[in-house]
């Protein structure tokens, strides 16, 4: 008996030794780095037999076992595959985990598709992707590479504009022989390079090229919907479409100087006129109308500054257009400009804005200020950088899309529920506190991997009572039947949103009626195939997804009284969501 235990002990010690030893062996390279390159190896063709060569560990301390790779301290630090007829499109995000990469070169190959994303590659110094068939825009994340010294992208089919590179380290730069367009950004760094770095592009302009940029920057084909526009151009467009935006404010605060107003009208059709007008506003001491701020202690800007800001269209909705305004001070705000609210009295508007502008909660967007004139109503709120839930769910499909995982989606919906509970409590006397809940009105901020959702565009129902069909609640069964909205109408919208988040289908896409869409979704027999493939691919959480679907169906019940309250919904969400997973992620 004793002997048996002894043998057993020896065995344990032996296996421990083997275990420790193999652990040391695997420490010679980093699995995340190797795993990242496997999809690349298996999806690309080339003149080398990568499939045969890239096996086993890629690194042994400073030695590399894989062709085209260099290692330092067991990390992959260089990836150099030049002139080997490398063919195919790069797998999305495949370099994300090769954290210590300092040189990347695929020059003179046959690569097509988008340029690789280089997010997180903080040690990357040299990027040589010239002489391929890359198309699409230069990814914006390239301007965030802190150590980038050389970027060669010449001889491709790259489109879009040149991002504003301004890392001082950058000393070699070539984007010639592409199809880039728009102005060359006038950053100190980009000014360093000569014509040879930029020429042979279809639509580039500005220094050092000998081509002057037109006064209005040409539209950026890489970003649909988000055209960068100077306020002056916004004004021009508005004049052209006979809706008068910021220019009206200009006229307003010039109202004491009638002759200037006349002049302004005369010059409205020429671009210089508008720029001059914007200039006056700074000189005009007789201005009486200004923005109303909620935090009267510290107004961060005045109307002049706002008018001189450069504006970019963030989105056009049924209520109006939202702009991103970047002021000379660098401050950024979002400005919503209402359309067709001219019958609204100042008292009504101001009362409602003061009510909702004083609400503060982590899950609702903070209103900074608002502006009322007879023809112009603006709401200015904090700018949320990562866009809307709609964009995250439905835009940038295909290669390059970063999937929204299940955990993130549930966390966002919990944020939405918290924001709604707050609104339902703070505006409990209003018929429907939010009234316009939909994925375009949920704005997302990422801090690291964690997404925070904030609600926007709420509290407009009292201002729009006659046009309520423009709001998201306009699609609720009770509103369609001509009944009054209630807090439960928001709950219906929340249910639709839940369905959208788990299926990644656009509600009412293909001009379908939303309630038909909901009924269609409801009537399928809830097998797993209703869910978005992106979250289904995850191994965990299928049970929770089904529970979430059930909750969504309760929220979209045709009878408002049968829908749960927002407070109950949050409790259900917290029960459904297994906190074990969140610990794993965090
Ligand atoms: C990067 O590594 C992490 C952690 O191992 C993994 O979850 C993730 O899927 C990897 N990403 C890519 C693009 O390979
Ligand atoms: C690449 O392809 C061309 C044309 O097919 C061929 O001449 C050349 O030898 C190839 N190069 C390599 C490194 O395989
Ligand atoms: C891969 O190729 C390189 C260079 O040809 C060679 O030194 C290395 O041993 C090969 N590695 C494997 C795992 O076959
Ligand atoms: C690997 O190279 C780095 C940098 O050149 C050096 O600091 C390190 O000592 C080397 N490691 C080994 C095991 O040779
Ligand atoms: C940029 O690349 C083009 C095409 O390969 C080349 O002719 C030109 O000399 C390069 N310019 C600079 C400044 O390196």
From TrEMBL:
<keyword id="KW-0677">Repeat</keyword>
<keyword id="KW-0433">Leucine-rich repeat</keyword>
<dbReference type="InterPro" id="IPR032675">
    <property type="entry name" value="LRR_dom_sf"/>
</dbReference>
<dbReference type="InterPro" id="IPR046959">
    <property type="entry name" value="PRK1-6/SRF4-like"/>
</dbReference>
<dbReference type="InterPro" id="IPR011009">
    <property type="entry name" value="Kinase-like_dom_sf"/>
</dbReference>
<dbReference type="Pfam" id="PF00560">
    <property type="entry name" value="LRR_1"/>
</dbReference>
<feature type="signal peptide">
    <location>
        <begin position="1"/>
        <end position="22"/>
    </location>
</feature>
<keyword id="KW-0812">Transmembrane</keyword>
<dbReference type="InterPro" id="IPR001611">
    <property type="entry name" value="Leu-rich_rpt"/>
</dbReference>
<dbReference type="Pfam" id="PF08263">
    <property type="entry name" value="LRRNT_2"/>
</dbReference>
<feature type="transmembrane region" description="Helical">
    <location>
        <begin position="231"/>
        <end position="253"/>
    </location>
</feature>
<keyword id="KW-1133">Transmembrane helix</keyword>
<keyword id="KW-0732">Signal</keyword>
<dbReference type="InterPro" id="IPR001245">
    <property type="entry name" value="Ser-Thr/Tyr_kinase_cat_dom"/>
</dbReference>
<dbReference type="InterPro" id="IPR013210">
    <property type="entry name" value="LRR_N_plant-typ"/>
</dbReference>
<dbReference type="Pfam" id="PF07714">
    <property type="entry name" value="PK_Tyr_Ser-Thr"/>
</dbReference>
<keyword id="KW-0472">Membrane</keyword>
<dbReference type="InterPro" id="IPR000719">
    <property type="entry name" value="Prot_kinase_dom"/>
</dbReference>
<protein>
    <submittedName>
        <fullName>Probable leucine-rich repeat receptor-like protein kinase</fullName>
    </submittedName>
</protein>
<feature type="domain" description="Protein kinase">
    <location>
        <begin position="308"/>
        <end position="581"/>
    </location>
</feature>
